[in-house]
Amino acid sequence: MNNYTKSKNENTQPKMAPELRKYIKLLNGKEVLDLGVGKGYNSVLLSNFGFNVTGVDISNESLKYIEENFDCANLTLINKDVREFEIEKNKYDLILSSNVLHFMPKEDFLKIIKKIKENLKEDGLIYISVFSKEDPSSKLNKDFKENTCISYFSKEEILDIFSDFTTILISDEYSLDLGHGKPHYHGMIKYIGKK
Ligand SMILES: C[S@@+](CC[C@H](N)C(=O)[O-])C[C@H]1O[C@@H](n2cnc3c(N)ncnc32)[C@H](O)[C@@H]1O
């Protein structure tokens, strides 16, 4: 496995969450669902590693970006709100959602997690990363919060939500993000668990 894929553009090599890359060897099968696929940073590489990936995103521009920049034979893209996406039962070995599920009220977050837990294959893995309560945006003014609807999580809360799963990784990071725009900080909780 290498870090590079058939990119149609020299400047658009996809990246992949290192902790996800480390633990994909635990998967027993090849079916992956990426909720909020974005520009495909995880899904493009997973599909190039031979996984059959379904990527869902509410933004048609993001899906177009993937189609225009990458050759991915086994990546299926679906333009839909993840809250309305029906997850096929016992199909997926890995369901991931990276930097997405905090962009909604907690009530919606909990409904999606319930749906993932019910439909993930037995022994399947879940990977999520969400904003922690330490994320600097949590301290912004009331107008920002009302207009953006971001939910913030603690490590304990995530562990409690997944108390019926086996924890493989839980991390609570505060770090400088150099990935987009001006360098800025984020507080993130990352979780990998096994059903
Ligand atoms: C910060 S990006 C993360 C993309 C990708 N998962 C990654 O880690 O690089 C957030 C993505 O979530 C998508 N998104 C946000 N809310 C969504 C929703 N309710 N349903 C589907 N996609 C959503 C956005 O369109 C965007 O592509």
What does this structure look like?
The protein is α/β, with parallel strands linked by helices and 195 residues long. It has one domain: Rossmann fold (3-Layer(aba) Sandwich). Helices cover 26% and strands 26% of the residues. It has a 7-stranded mixed beta sheet. The longest helix has 14 residues, at 106-119. The radius of gyration is 16 Å and the shape is globular. The two termini are 26 Å apart. The mean pLDDT is 91. S-adenosylmethionine binds next to strand 2. S-adenosylmethionine is lined by residues 36-38, 41, 56-59, 62, 81-83, 98-100, 103-104.
Q: What is the strand content?
A: 25-35%
How far apart are the termini?
A: 26 Å
Q: Helical content, roughly?
A: 25-40%
Supply Rg: 16 Å
- How would you describe the shape? globular
* Count of individual helical segments: 6
Assign the CATH architecture.
3-Layer(aba) Sandwich
Spell out the CATH superfamily. Answer: Vaccinia Virus protein VP39
Query: Would you report the number of β strands?
Result: 7
Structural class: alpha/beta
Whole-number tally of structural domains: 1
Largest sheet at a glance?
7 strands, mixed
Low-confidence runs (pLDDT<50, min 5 residues)? none
Assign the CATH topology.
Rossmann fold
Q: Order of strands across the widest beta sheet?
A: 3-2-1-4-5-7-6
Nutshell version of this structure?
This protein is α/β, with parallel strands linked by helices. It has 6 helices and 7 strands.
